[in-house]
Specification:
With 462 residues, this protein is α/β, with parallel strands linked by helices. It has two domains: 5-55 and 390-406 and 426-447, Urease, subunit C, domain 1; 58-377, Alpha-Beta Barrel (TIM Barrel). The protein has 15 helices and 19 strands. The protein has helices at 77-86, 105-118, 134-142, 160-163, 171-182, 195-205, 213-219, 222-239, 251-259, 272-276, 279-285, 298-309, 325-330, 348-357, 363-377; strands at residues 5-10, 13-16, 19-22, 24-28, 31-36, 44-49, 54-57, 59-64, 89-94, 122-127, 145-151, 188-191, 243-245, 266-270, 315-316, 395-405, 426-436, 439-443, 446-447. The strands form three sheets. Strands 8-9-10-11-12-13-14-15 form an eight-stranded parallel beta sheet. The protein has a seven-stranded mixed beta sheet with strand order 3-2-7-16-17-18-19, with helices on one face. Helix 2 (105-118) links the parallel strand 9 and strand 10 (122-127). Helix 2 (105-118) runs parallel beside helix 3 (134-142), helix 5 crosses helix 8 (222-239) and helix 6 (195-205) runs antiparallel to helix 7. Bound molecules: zinc ion. The site of zinc ion (ZN) has 5 residues, from loops.
Length: 462
């Protein structure tokens, strides 16, 4: 029996591992101390009334970019983790693209320390496999890397230092990276588009109108993604890594994932930009809607939703990738030249709650996609992703009847001025409060989380 609670949240509905229950939730020492039938909890120093609200385990976003400390004009750890708090995200995993690339033990340590000083929410740091040696792999894990990431594409022109040790267009190096990861218990995430096909279609697109949004899709059609995923999954029959396919966009790739089911331990994700927008939205948003791989048509979007209901896609992540308004604006009317990436950390949860309100899926399934499944995949469940005694008291309180309006005025991210893809959307469902380790970091529209209050997350369930 708990001696006393720091905080009791009462009157709400708790999303527990076995579903929704009207329970009071007690917190002590930053952890969930217990779940109690209404009126039966021990005494608490502070009481929070959650009548009308749902208590969800804080969202875990396993695919996030801020690239800090490089490029502060695009957003900083402070600005983007504050935005995360506003969006109900309490843990995020930062991808290794930075300047320089996070592909050495020293860089893993430097980024980890930079995040520790500045983050408002908990964070994990991805490593790129770098020189593909066991020695640097082990040293990066010793610095606390949460997982590995590679691209099957070459570095974009002029950005080789950001992708050094991360971009492996050759099959032999991809196989080596999978095998290095397989010898650990850490997942390896892949941005999968086939380099040779991208080169081919890129040349063909040189003759197309650069201002036409369709040109971007034609320069990287679905077959590029499907072929790269098929090759990776074929190699993983040999390697048997814990493979995770990033941002699946197309019906063809869903078919490939199905064809390889059961051949190795792989999972796949998609993102709100692929589930809630199509190329018609990109045409409206212009280069602000450019992202890689490209956003496709309605049939692909429908296939992604079916893949979710079939259990083929088990993760929805943000791929939050802020660029400055000036950078996007400089290439207006020029899709090939525009930087690829869109923000999403503040509205992944409201977008999924809206899908629940539309009847597309249940609340537990929606939450599993953006939280619990990721926590399990990365081996941090039930410390994260669950509300049970002993779990971190990371709690997102949501009002399912509330409304979230996406606009530069309501967003907090540095990328609020480049969120054209989602601007103007009215989503059913609203983040009322975000709690990290028992402390409120966002409430009533205000971010009150402490800079440096976020903790570095190493693998492990406790
Ligand atoms: Zn990404």
């Amino acid at each position: 029996m708990t001696a006393g609670l720091d905080l009791l949240i009462r009157g709400g509905t708790v999303l527990a591992p076995d579903g929704l229950h009207a329970l009071d939730l007690g917190i002590a020492g930053g952890k969930v101390a217990g779940l109690y039938h209404p009126g039966t909890a021990p005494a608490a120093t502070e009481i929070l009334d959650a009548t009308g609200l749902h208590l969800l385990p804080g969202i875990v976003d396993i695919h996030f970019h801020v690239r800090a400390p490089a490029y502060p004009e695009r957003g900083t750890v402070q600005s983007e983790t504050r935005a995360a708090a506003a969006g109900g995200v309490t843990t995020l995993f930062e991808m290794p693209i930075s300047k320089p690339c996070c592909a050495t033990p020293a860089e893993v340590a430097r980024r980890r320390d930079h995040f520790a000083e500045n983050a408002v929410v908990d964070f994990g740091i991805y490593a790129a496999p770098g020189d593909l040696t066991e020695a640097s792999r082990d040293a990066m894990l010793a610095e606390g890397a949460i997982a590995f990431k590679i691209f099957t594409t070459p570095a974009p022109p002029g950005r080789s230092d950001e992708f050094d040790g991360l971009a492996f267009p050759g099959a032999a190096e991809q196989l080596r990276a999978l095998q290095l990861a397989a010898a650990t218990d850490r997942p390896i995430v892949v941005h999968a588009e086939d380099a040779a096909l991208l080169d081919h279609f890129g040349r063909l697109a040189d003759d197309l109108d650069p201002a036409d949004a369709a040109t971007h899709g034609k320069s990287r059609p679905s077959v590029c993604e499907a072929v790269a995923v098929a090759q990776l999954l074929a190699m993983n029959i040999t390697a048997q890594a814990k493979l995770h396919i990033a941002h699946v966009t197309s019906a063809e790739t869903v078919q490939v994932l199905k064809a390889f089911a059961g051949t190795s331990d792989f999972t796949a994700e998609t993102c709100p930009q692929y589930l809630f927008t199509t190329e018609a939205d990109v045409a409206r948003a212009g280069v602000y809607g450019k992202v890689n791989p490209p956003i496709r048509g309605q049939a692909d979007q429908d296939a992604l939703w079916r893949a979710i209901s079939d259990g083929v896609i088990t993760h929805v992540t943000t791929d939050h990738a802020p660029f400055s308004h000036a950078e996007k604006a400089a290439s207006e009317g020029n899709f090939p030249a525009a930087p690829p990436g869109v923000p999403g950390i503040e509205f992944i949860l409201p977008a999924m709650l809206d899908a629940v309100a539309q009847g597309r899926l249940g609340l537990k399934q929606a939450h599993d996609l953006i939280c619990a499944n990721g926590a399990r995949r990365y081996g941090i469940y039930p410390r994260k992703g669950a509300l049970m005694p002993g779990s971190d008291a990371d709690i997102t309180l949501v009002d399912l009847e509330g409304e979230t309006v996406i606009s530069p005025e309501t967003l907090h991210s540095h990328a609020r001025n480049v969120a054209h893809l989602f601007n103007g959307r009215r989503l059913r469902g609203k983040v009322a409060r975000t709690i990290l380790a028992g402390r409120t970091i966002f409430a009533d529209g205000k971010i009150i989380g402490r800079i440096g209050g976020g903790r570095h997350i190493r693998p492990g369930p406790t």
